[in-house]
Amino acid sequence: MAIRCTPGRYQEIAEHWQNIFDWKKEEDKLNRLPNFRSLVPIDGFGDIDIHFVHQTSPNKNAIPLLFCHGWPGSFIEVTKLLPFLARSDSAPAFHIVAPSLPNFGFSQRVSKPGFALAHYAEVCHKLMLSLGYSTYVTQGGDWGFYITRAIGLLYPRHCLASHINMIRASAPKITRNPALALQHALSPYSAAEKKGLERSEWFEKEGFGYNLLQRTKPQTLSYAFADSPVALLAWIYEKLHDWTDSYPWTDDEILTWVSIYWFSTAGPVAHIRIYYEAMHNATPVIPTRDTLIGWIPSVKLGMAFFPKELTVVPRTWGRTLGPVVYKSENEQGGHFAAWERPDVIAADLLKMFQKGGPCYNIVKGKSGY
Description:
The protein is an alpha/beta fold. It is 41% helix and 14% strand. It is built from 15 helices and 8 strands.
């Protein structure tokens, strides 16, 4: 049964938060993870204190995998993937690194203006290098889509493959993708693709208001979030409800997600700055966010399509992003794929990198199992 998103439901969750929810219990679970901190030097911003989960495999040939969360998620999304990818007796094996992005979770708040997508990419890349991973692969959705795409654009000798579960792309154009544009023109959309376009249209018309506010008036929203935990709860819970595929959220799950924002090292308001900074601070290599939905040639790409993603593009559109070597079509799942369908994300990664897969042995000297 789909969860409700009504005034009464908000009140129920708020009362549960006030009277029943045990943050210390959930905090204890988070503290059992392999948590670490590291100072990462970023050009123009100095050293930034980054929190990250780092699950290493005893397999000496394990592949370094950077997991990058988005909004309103956090590093907690990787926790359901860890058991699927932890086995050392299977091939491939992974070393998993899942940072709290700056301004999120338990990483530092960046108060200096201008911290844009290129800087988020720099944080993740330098963190991987500091851990000894000179080559690695990535997985991401939401802002993780844009950040891992930026990593592939900026650091193509290091980021060798990427798996994404939110596909933002445009129809192929004859001037850029002539063969793909011809195929697109001659091939009718499937029933699933038509439904995907309807989902995308719904999001643009009915679900995009938060984005406009966060990228233009973040400071105004910040007063509400700083003043009221219920305001923060309502803002995030709405997305957990609308952006998932009837996922049966428990009250404790919802409140753990929101509490990570409320008790964030960066404070309960810093997280929305990424929208403003990404839209207002161009860098030479990434002049606009749309740069990252163009062709990135050097990174092999895997894609997972879910029916209740925020935008669900036709499959030929996804092939404009780069050399697509793998895709999965899924009948159930939404925006928070690593949380809703960790089985799918893990299976995709295993199939991409296993012997006989399209990315087998791509990380030289690390995945020769």
